[in-house]
Amino acid sequence: MTGARIAKLFFLAVMACLLAACNPFSDARPMMDEYVERVGRVLDVEPAFSEIPASERIPRRRNRVLSMPDLELGMLDFLSLYSCELQYVVGEKNSVMGKVMQPLNRLRYEVQFIKAAGDCLNTVEDEELKDILNQAITSKRESLPIAIWNATWGVEEVETLFTFAKGEYPVEAADPASDLARDARQLNKAVAELLEQNFDVDTDFWGKVHQRWQAEYRAGQLINSAHLVTTRLGDATHLIRQRLEARPLCLNGNANNQSDIVQGMFFSIYIGKIQPYLADLRRARTDLIEPLSRLANMQSDVMPEHFQRWYESTLALKGGKSIWANLDKAVADHTKSWQTLLEQCGLRPGA
Q1: Alpha-helical segments (H) within 266-322
Q2: pLDDT above 90 coverage of the chain, percent
Q3: In this predicted model, what pLDDT tens digit does every residue of 194-203 receive, in sequence order?
Q4: Directed axis angle between helix 257-265 and helix 28-43, to 10°?
Q5: Domain boundaries, the chain
Q6: Residue 313, exposed/middle/buried by CB under 10 A (0-12, 13-18, 19+)?
Q7: pLDDT in tens, 185-239
Q8: What are the pLDDT digits (tens) for 90-148?
Q9: Which of 184, 172, 171, 170 is nearest to 212 (CA)?
């Protein structure tokens, strides 16, 4: 390849990067800032930018993981000597590897123990052993929700899914949260069955869910975008209300040159750029945040206090602390403000 050819390709690459950088609508944050600027410009109102609240991080793992009760050592030693499948299950737990089980493996052990102990119970005649087995099964059933919690919200991988280091949810995301959404639905179904004491649930897929959580960060991006969009829509709404409280955009409902400009910006920017992004956020929230919210809510009986506070602000879809309820309100308020403004000129959308 000649030097001139290399230079030309380099020039084209640089120009492409510059053009992309000059397009404020290619990324969420500059897009929302640009939108506020343009609303202020067409309404002759000086824009002001509010500080975007910091996203609340998921509690540290030490505040998410619950202490898992163990059977008394003497009981375990006794059960490990009995010649049925339970002997091998208990033996695995007592091994060196079993003492440092990851949360998912611990959940699998708890389920295996309950099933094996139940099978043993059907074969023994010794009353003392029956009593010990019944005590063990009851204890394991009662502590199973803790093992389930630790295998979902207590794992390290979930921290990557909710990281805020990757910015906002992309504009026109090429890889939506479909795989994560499928994982969340499958996980919800398995957790619900386990909580109903159905021990035939297949947990083979569970590890792959954790792997995807460790490789993805969509939940954190969605949370960042919720704060960004809520704040900037609030800023734009404030500008529209300032204009509504000042001189009318139109007199006697008659359109004019400025109202035509305002309407053009409304359709080209708000309808053409902002609303598609709002629709993407809504879709991703429905696909990912809602099932994750259900995953936490169905385990509310064992949810740690630190996590409860985070859940109410970050995962809950309703309530005064919910970022999603605040986003919905910001969208509704903004839409109403636009309708009121354009109605002054007989230009209300849908009228």
Answers
A1: 275-284, 290-297, 305-310
A2: 70
A3: 999 999 999 9
A4: 170
A5: 27-65+154-351, 66-146
A6: middle
A7: 999 999 999 999 999 999 999 999 999 999 999 999 999 999 999 999 999 999 9
A8: 767 665 455 568 999 999 999 999 998 888 888 877 788 888 888 889 999 999 999 99
A9: 184
In angstroms, the CA 202 to CA 209 distance is 13
pLDDT, residue 47, reads 96
Tokens of 146: 């803790």
Cα 337 to Cα 242: distance, rounded to the nearest angstrom: 10
Q: How far apart are CA 155 and CA 300, in angstroms?
A: 17
Contact 216, 284 (CB under 8 A): no
C-alpha span between 110 and 117 (Å, rounded): 11
> In degrees to the nearest 10, what's the CA dihedral of 323, 209, 286, 297?
-60
Contact of 50 with 235, CB cutoff 8 Å: yes
